[in-house]
Amino acid sequence: MPNAINLDFNFEWDDLFEHPKAIERLEQEVFPAYLRSSRWFGGKAKVIDKLQIERWLVMPLPKRNGYFLVLKIDYQDSLPERYALTISHASEGTTAEIEAEHPQALIAYARFKNKQGAIYDSIYRNGYRMSLIQMMANNEVLEANQTLLSFYKGTYLTDVEEIQQSKVLKVEQSNSSIIYDNKYFLKLYRKIDYAINPDVEVTRFLSEKTNFRNLPLFAGSAELRNEKQQSLILGMLMQLVDNEGDAWTYTLKNTYSYFDKLIETAAIQSEPPTVVEGKDYTGFKDMPAIFQQAIDKDYFNSVKLLAQRTAEMHIALGKGDDFSSFGTEPLTLDHQNRFLNETRNLVESRFNLLQSLTNILQENVGDLALKILNSREKLLHLLEDILSNPLAAKRIRIHGDYHLGQVLYTGDDFIIIDFEGEPDKPFADRRNKYSCLKDLAGMVRSFHYAAYATIYQYLNQKGARFLHVEAWADQWYHYIGNYFLNNYIDALKGSKLLPQKRSSILKLLQAYILEKAVYELGYELNNRPEWVIIPLKGISYILKRY
After folding, report:
1. Which residues contact 513 (CB under 8 A, 6 or more apart)?
2. What is the pTM of this model?
3. pLDDT digits over 140-173, tens only?
4. How far apart are the first and last CA of the chain?
5. What is the 3-state secondary structure (H, E, C) of 136-191?
6. Which of 259, 378, 509, 532 falls between 20 and 30 A from 355, CA-CA?
7. Is 529 exposed, middle or buried (0-12, 13-18, 19+ CB in 10 A)?
């Protein structure tokens, strides 16, 4: 960590929490600086009003104990958040190793009673990592300061004594990840909340209460409870699944190949064959010959498998007693109206943001943006037309953030991961039940992203620009998206999760796809303005067919 803070205390590390002035300096100076340097901290754009160590426990570790901390952060113009952090003190020699190998772990240089060293994030210490999985295997409980830290052993945690190595994955997002002997995967949640964590809840339910096996199986967890019996989920251990990468990377490989073949045959110089609207494309040979030549047949078949695995996931999530955390509930007109009102509000906020930023968009994007802005009433009318009549479907727990990046490709199968739900929503909202078509809309939109990402990330960077390239992207999306949808509907026959009429299925799916594309519009405007054309194209695609 560049410009790390230097601390000098005349007491021992084990006595840290007996010295309020030292704690005050950690809260006011050290931890705010460290959080802002950490990739997993989600409050970088917010102004911290106050940070306090809300709870702490001694973590018994080899050689020297650490401290587990719950940091509560109050912001000036936003709701408070909590983050989990375990800290240790390194000797001078170990500090040099951390600086060289894990500079992101360094929190502050610190001398404790003439013992020079550094305070650092404990997950970069092998002893701490090994103690976590051992405590899960033993169902251990730590108790102090009106706080209970419990470790749970899952059905699929075995042979812990045989584990030799552990390592922290270098790619950090909102969580931190540890691999044990290429056998187990521990996800440590950095941002935590007093609520049931849907990722742990859904993963454990699917692993232990259903026959669905296309996910990393639940092996253990760590949970903190306060004196009010409120719970914070700190981490989840799962079996590690061998894979070749995510389905997004696998799909891009195939979209790149698709366009390369079109360029080689010069087909891309002309307009693609016209799509026959309303026709079901249920097999590879139903497509025009040029698409059979350009789209890899193995990839096409894998889309069918992904549709089947998606349907199997939803059938499993519908298991359990009705009106419990799992099981099915009816999709009523009240729920449809609530979804309509939420989507109306989303459209208003995202379109207002788009209106305010049209002047900074590229000319061709700005023209499309204005066209979409002028279609606001048509879009709202479409949603009202779809959702104002009963659709006779079921609601279940869903994945909640389903796209190609949330699926691993093993070479011959798919593994679905990360059941945390939409990251922008509170945990309680992520546990709501929805039509399974909400997940399907996320995956369909992901196929659309893959087609257009290939244009902007691959073809344009190669300098390969063609008049009809977007039409060919739309055709790929049309055939792949419809094949995925048709196989998904076939796999759900008899489940009663979907409306009985195909026309009702397609209408409800359109509403969810529109909602997803409008959500993406706001995300791209705030984070990747150069990509905003993709959700704009997605909205336009549906409006043209309405």
Report:
1. 441, 444, 445, 538, 542
2. 0.90
3. 999 988 899 999 999 999 989 899 899 999 876 7
4. 54
5. HHCCCEEEECCEEEEEEECCCCCCHHHCCCEEECCCCCCEEEEEECCCEEEEEECE
6. 509
7. middle
Residue 281 has pLDDT above 70, yes or no: no
For residue 509, CA distances in Å to 66, 289, 335, 435, 486 come to 50, 29, 15, 9, 12
Helices (H) and strands (E) in the chain, counts: 17, 18
The 3-state DSSP class for residue 214 equals: coil
State CA 246 to chain mean position distance. Answer: 13
Residue the block writes with tokens 């802005």: 373
**240 in Cβ contact with 182 (< 8 Å):** yes
**With helix as H, strand as E and coil as C, how does 277-300 read?**
CCCCCCCHHHCCHHHHHHCCHHHH
Query: C-alpha angle 539/540/543, rounded to 5°?
Result: 90
The pLDDT > 70 percentage for the chain reads: 97
What percentage of the chain reaches a pLDDT higher than 90? 78
Task: Compute the distance between CA of residue 527 and CA of residue 535 in angstroms, rounded to an integer.
Answer: 13
- Work out the average pLDDT over 461-466: 71
222 three-class SS: strand
Determine how β-strand 231-239 pairs with β-strand 218-225.
antiparallel
Q: Of 309, 330, 322, 318, nearest to 210 (Cα)?
A: 318
Exposure on the CB side of residue 90, measured as CA atoms within 13 A: 25
Q: Give CA separation, 271 vs 20, 309, 468, in Å.
A: 72, 35, 6
pLDDT at 467: 78
Contact 399, 419 (CB under 8 A): yes
Two structure tokens written together for 310: 């998606």
pLDDT for 323 equals 56
* Residues contacting 233, CB < 8 A, separation 6+: 189, 192, 196, 197, 200, 221, 222, 223
- Report residue 352 CA to chain centroid gap: 26
- The one-letter amino acid at 465: R
Tokens of 186: 């521990």
Q: CA-CA distance, 131 to 135, in Å (whole number)?
A: 6
